[in-house]
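3.2 Worked example (two chains)
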Amino acid sequence: MPTRKFAGFVARHNRAYQTILWTVVIGSILGGTFAWVGGWLDVQDAGYWGAFLVNLVGSAAVVVPVPGLAAVCAGATSELGLNFVLLAVAGAAGSTIGEITGYLAGYGSQGVVQRSRYYPRIHDWVVRRGGFALFILAVIPNPLFDIGGIAAGSLGYPISRFLLWVGIGKLVKFLVVAYACRQSISWLVDLV
């Protein structure tokens, strides 16, 4: 029922919704860029909070790559003394929350990404497999997850299930990366 109310609100106020959405996305990109350049998002200095923020900004920026996995990898080194499980949880939480921007972009507009050659395939996969498709897209380190989030939003996929599946997938991915970086597994570190 709340999804229908939200969909009705968006339909009545589509121009305002799109303006707010793009203001948040552009604000996240600019704010994250300034924070990154200014050195405020250095995970080595900020610990768990830094991992959360770097991944939040990186995922919210949608198309601008911010090295969230690399930040978690750097924070997981044994020299810093951070717990790699808590670091993975912080990174996954930030990344999952940040993915809401892609979901909302798909929910409220026909964006440029929807014209991508990958969009129809991923859209169909999300239609057929739902949460499993979102989980797989979230586990694999690739830039196509944003297309999956946009597809889920355009389908009206329930946001609570979207966050659940994406959160589980991101947590698995971040746990593997943090553990690998803690153990200095060179082939996985090179992948990140």
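3.2.1 Second chain
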Amino acid sequence: MRIGFDLMGSDGAPKTELSALEILKEEAINDIVAVGKGDYENVVRELGFEFCLADEVVGMHEIPAVAVRQKKNSSLGILIKLLKEKKIDAIVSAGNTGAILGFSMFELGKLEGISRPGLAITFPTETGYSVMIDVGANIHPKMVDYINYGIMGSVFYEVVLRTEKPRVALLNIGTESVKGDEIRQKAYQALKQTDLNFIGNIEGGDIMKGYADVIVSDGFTGNVILKFSEGIVDILWKMLSETVDAVARRRFGKFLVKPAIKDLKAKFNYEEYGGGILLGINGVVIVCHGHSSARALKNAIGLARECITYNIVERIGEALKR
């Protein structure tokens, strides 16, 4: 197993990525092929990892279509090429999401029956984790995309969270089957006819209550929910910590309360799985936040390893043919 790792992707690149490699070295993990500029080759090799030179970098604000045409020698372009040639088994990048999608679709291609890929992420809930798909790859899905997202999200949930027949719900503005636009209404009826464990619509306020295991959404809405929830969780932790500091002024009181807050924060930590996975592509492509920490990137590599081990691409391909 070999996993390609983009050294130049995150907002803190390459410092954050190199810190992730240091963590991996401590854990005796050495199946990484790091791709980046030559300035960092010696550091990577001294850490004990394989290095591949990239002459260019795709910036966060570059137009994806332009990057795909003009920056084939970028770290992203080289990673996708290595994956296409089966010289690596997966890639992990915190780079430009649109460029990752563009390179993946152009070079790797889509699985049979897929109109548009979907980006799936694990989402912390009151009872554990849910999977939401799509959170940014496809802002104008067709009815068939919703069906495929339900199928692919279910396979991903089974692989990562070890649960058979996960509950699938369609994100909508109400629980009734007649709610939402025409496409969602048709998707509701079509999902009912599948072999999926479809439980109906779910509203935004119920997402984090754990009512559904797989939440199917369009990419625009899913991305807004993802970023809003990340922001609100960060603010709540800050406010909660300040409140605890104000109330539990005695040192002993802080000692008792703060471990509970730390445990609660860990449960809602988006770094647990490190990133999302681009489903519907003929390859394992893990997409991380631009502001990912070293720990998040390390966990994303772990997610890639898990998806390879359980043959997620092949399993999704088989599920789509049923």
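3.3 Remarks
The mean pLDDT is 89.
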